[in-house]
Amino acid sequence: MIVAAITAASGLAAWRRPRKPKGERENDFIDQLQEERSKDRERLDRLERRADAAAQRERIRDDYIMTLRQHIADGKPPPPPPFPPGLYGDGSL
After folding, report:
1. Three-state secondary structure along the chain?
2. Which domain holds residue 72?
3. What is the pLDDT of residues 35-72, one digit of tens each?
4. Residue 66 counted as domain residue
5. How far apart are CA 54 and CA 62, in angstroms?
6. Is residue 89 in a domain?
7. What's the CA gap between 13 and 84, in Å, rounded?
8. Which of 47, 84, 42 is nearest to 65 (CA)?
9. How far is residue 84's CA from residue 59's CA, in Å, rounded to a whole number?
10. CB under 8 Å to 84, separation ≥6 — which residues?
11. How many domains does the chain have?
12. Is the residue at 73 inside a domain?
């Protein structure tokens, strides 16, 4: 009998618990989704910048490879042409 009374009381308390209106819950959910979307956009922007920088380094590296190959093909002796700016160590890329 006591168990039934406790169960009924807890069920009644849960049923009577104040709830947010339906529209407010939906607005909270929309706000949460917009915040997540904003964070996703920021992350995507960072990744795009990294990909662009990597592509630029790759173009510089490919050009340098062709310069080295031409240096060899022309029969020029060492030293090889210097590294291009922005490829290694100067911090520009």
Report:
1. CHHHHHHHHHHHHHHHCCCCCHHHHHHHHHHHHHHHHHHHHHHHHHHHHHHHHHHHHHHHHHHHHHHHHHHHHCCCCCCCCCCCCCCCCCCCC
2. 27-93
3. 999 999 999 999 999 999 999 999 999 999 999 999 99
4. yes
5. 12
6. yes
7. 74
8. 84
9. 11
10. 60, 63, 64
11. 1
12. yes
Query: What would the pLDDT profile of 8-44 be if each residue is shown by its tens digit?
Result: 666 656 556 667 677 899 999 999 999 999 999 999 9
Cis bond upstream, residue 78 (ω within 30)? no
Q: Is 83 left (phi over 0), alpha (psi -120 to 50) or beta?
A: beta
Tokens of 93: 């890329």
In a domain, 10, yes or no: no
Q: How far apart are CA 50 and CA 65, in angstroms?
A: 22
